[in-house]
Amino acid sequence: MATTLHSFMDIFDTTFGEGPEAVQLKKIIIPIIQRDYAQGRKGADVTRIRERFLDSLYNAVIEKPITLDFVYGDIDNEGNMTPLDGQQRLTTLFLLHWYAARKGNIAEAEYSFLKRFSYETRYSARYFCIDLVDYKPKLKTTISKEIINQAWFPLDWENDPTISSMLVMLDAIDNKFKDVPNLWERLKEKCITFYFLPVKDMGLTDELYIKMNSRGKPLTLFEHFKAELERQIRSLDDGLANRIIRKIDQDWTDLLWDYRDSGNNSSEDNIIDDEFLRYFKFICDVICYRQNESPLGRSNDEFDLLQRYFSPKCPNAIKNIETLERFMDCWCKIPGYASPTDFLKSFMANKHERGKILVESRFSLNIFEDCLRAYSDKTGRIRQFPLSRIVLLYAITTYLQNVDKVTEDDFRRRIRIVNNLIRNSEDEVSDRTDRTRMPAILAEAHAIILTGGIDESIENNFNVSQLMEEKEKIAFLEANPNMEDILFELEDHFLLNGQIGIIGLENLTYTSRFESLFKCSLDRINCALMAIGDYGQVERNKWRYQYGSTYQVAWTALFHRSANSGFENTKKILISLLAANEEFSNEALKKISDDFLQECENNNVFPFRYYYIKYREYRPESFGKMHNNSAAENPYMFLVMQTKTQLSQNSYYPYLKAADDSHLSKDDMGQRLIFGDEHIICNNSSYQRRRNEDDSVVETIIIPQNEYGIDTEDRITILKNYIKANF
User: Fold this and answer.
1) Where are the alpha helices (DSSP H) in 104-220?
2) What is the pLDDT of residues 522-578, one digit of tens each?
3) Which of 127, 547, 603, 686 has its CA at 20 to 30 Å from residue 11's CA atom?
4) What are phi and psi of 664, to 5 degrees?
5) How many beta carbons lie within 10 A of that of residue 483, not counting itself?
């Protein structure tokens, strides 16, 4: 026997072999040893495979004929063919031909060959195939519902996995082919064919046949993907296809082998499939961004990506395949390093180390492995591999693909620039279908790695202020190379994250003082700064103010340039504090605050800063936010906020809370003290006692102020004394 090309119709009329060994095929029998029909199972992966297979069959019917590769099997002396490989395809073709016959009202004599296809896996599947051929559906509702409602269909057949899978496939076939005219005639024209190769011609023994069939495992998603990738590339360039498949099987498998078990050491996860596909998706996203587009809103399915970027339908397919090859190859042999892990750890750290960039402790240093483990995965709407990591990984791969053009020392300096930009461009590193910065950001990162400079021709990429700062640093280090270590040390401070504008290149000698200061109590620092001057910043909305707190997040916001007004004033006051001492302690900071309070009390002058320092209630916690929508006219009317952006029931006027916290009304967002049927509110220069019923004023308590509108008596003491005397 030899390999021959057949359609599902004509194979039943074919004689195989010659002479006395010739035998005519009479039946196709799916043997008991075979697994159940699976192409109609439910589940994302199977649905995807089913839809793709039906798409191929559909295109063959209406456009270009298709050959479904090899079907392997054995034909006994009675003419019974048992498939070794091809069961799934043959079953689907059986169902498609049945559907075409019934849809086209074909005479029984023409489709009678369908009765020669049988399942021996279990009696129910066998008799279902027999009954199905005889059944004439009305095709007015879903085929599966019609069949299940027939008297010849026992209810327990729904529990047969092969039958249930066939029903799903029949519905899918109907959905795909219901509008195709002359379907039966097209099938007769051999628009769908396959090669049949007898097992004996392959030299396979019965023992091997049993072993192959008892594997019991369908092809994996990756195996289907790999076959489709090869097919698409081969349609473009045979030599390129051979090279890529060889690398997948050898070089790239060797590369990914150490990451194959997802870190769980499970014997059930001893393959590189998922890791390869995740990195493949990263490369596809890069290709998309390089085309000045966004992948958002598009399918993230591996096969859809393959069609979009690597098939003959894509005009840049060859270029994209070469991109895939470079992005994989660059990790295989890194000059001077035994593995990607060794390379990455050589320039990345979770705390400041000379010659390394700083990576947040929540992220793995092995960004390559992180990509293999988590790319495209989400927790809710949160990416497990965020955009910032995409940019960093892209910058690293840019270097690895250009090791012949960029020295390692240059790379270490340049990746720090990129990392600084990433860490200070949280709002800018974004991806939107209507407006994405990612193409420009990747282009800027690429330029920095290759040239060491900022490409100002690339618009709308990283944060503008940080780009300017990095450009200044580049020039500064060219003139002052001896200052590199101290600059990088300051960049890596936990409050600065690469942005040093709050200190400035002109004040780098204060680096050790800054580190000493922020080893002290944050509350002590807060008070000491306020003793020097009102260091707060007003946000763009003109009513929300940023101060420090006992939380790091407040200082980080304060020390990074933004749309806030007052950054330079904050810097001026901070530098004044740093200039006061070479080393800082809580005691030293307390003395600065105490000296200021004493001066105010001696002079009977009580500005807002006095209250802020003296009374703990004035200093905001958490985000360091305060509210005042008319600070120029009412400098004392600051509300302390407990949230980042909005007032809440936990907000409060600090004067009221400091005077009598027990009567502070949360229902009024801390803007009243409630005493029975009366309440007290505060104004810039007075308190008012009012009735709850009609809000009428019972009494006004004046706060003495000088000609500059500054209190001359402690307003907290005034209110405490009044409450004590009247309630």
Assistant:
1) 108-111, 123-134, 143-148, 161-177, 183-188, 199-202, 206-213
2) 999 999 999 999 999 999 999 999 999 999 999 999 999 999 999 999 999 999 999
3) 127
4) -70, 130
5) 17
- Cα(278)–Cα(299) distance, integer angstroms: 14
Tokens, residue 538: 């007003």
Look-up: residue for tokens 């800063």?
609
**Residue (of 381, 394, 378) closest to 287 by Cα position:** 394
Give the position of tokens 């896996």: 121
Determine the pLDDT at residue 285: 97
Tokens of residue 84, six digits: 């070794």
The pTM of this model reads: 0.75
> What integer best gives the mean pLDDT of the chain?
90
What is the band of 34 on the pLDDT scale with cuts at 50, 70, 90?
Answer: low
Domain extent listing, the chain? 4-218, 235-481, 505-726
| Assigned token pair, 690 | 């009012």
Q: Give, in order, the Cα–Cα distances in Å from 512 to each of 333, 498, 501, 507.
A: 41, 16, 16, 11
Phi and psi based region of residue 428 (left: phi greater than 0; alpha: psi -120 to 50; beta: remaining): alpha
Q: What percentage of the chain's residues is helix, strand, coil (to nearest 5)?
A: 50, 10, 40
pLDDT in tens, 460-471: 999 999 999 999
Q: What secondary structure letter does DSSP report for 220? A: P
Say how far apart CA 631 and CA 487 lie, in whole Å.
37
